[in-house]
Amino acid sequence: MKVGIIQQRNSSDIEGNRQSLITKIKDLAAWGAQLVVLPELHDSLYFCQVEDVDNFDLAVEIPGKETAQYAAVARECGIVLVTSMFEKRATGLYHNTAVVYDTDGSIAGQYRKMHIPDDPAYYEKFYFTPGDMGFHPIQTSLGKLGVMVCWDQWYPEGARLMAMRGAELLIYPTAIGYESSDTPDEQERQREAWTTVQRGHAVANGLPVITVNRVGHESDPSGQTNGIQFWGSSFVAGPQGELIYRAPNDTEDCQIIDIDMERSEQVRRWWPFLRDRRIDYYSDLDKRYLD
Known about the structure:
By secondary structure, the protein is α+β, with helices and mostly antiparallel strands. It contains 6 helices and 17 strands. Helix 1 runs parallel beside helix 2 (65-77). The protein is globular, with a radius of gyration of 18 Å. The termini are far apart. The mean pLDDT is 97.
């Protein structure tokens, strides 16, 4: 499968961001991409740096005129497209939602972000209600896609449940970056931990992982911090965790990566982790903590 990734630097011009993405999607399709993945909340700046009720005006309905634009480009290009939207489900009820379009422009499925962070400059609990759709792969004409979103990538449980339900790829639209007060060594440890944990999901489940991050500096509107330097580094890992491609950490990138979809079958024969799971002893995993 030829997978296109778009690592983009965003501005406050929402329509400009969207048109830039659409142009890049069309370029990737012209170069042979079958699946294209965008970063998290790709239409705007990362507004969660502050708690501001006016930012709820950024939310869109699904389906709506915004999703129609992406549906049209998926249909025109004949690709499967993974997008990330700030969803207005109802007045006062909002989600961080991935929307997947099939090659005919139809919405193949949605995923609402399950794990919601609440850290300095990442005040997502103010905006997003935790997802209620569970961990279910989205069936497309290319196969079953295990789509999750950003903070979900730190949790092995979600990746495992997607794999157990037949996902053929794990996909994470992402918006993550450096805190400016951290030392360069600490920043690098964080970026490498982020990469390593997801490569671990690939190994543990015998599946390729696609992670697409934004890049560039975005200021804190409140001026209380120095903003976020999004670290890019979008990557594709194979089913043994091998890095097939890794984007730069400081520039935009638009790339096609060829994934051997038959390799997962062989890897799972060599490393039958699903076979050897001791499911008769895992019941305590549904508890918060074991005292």
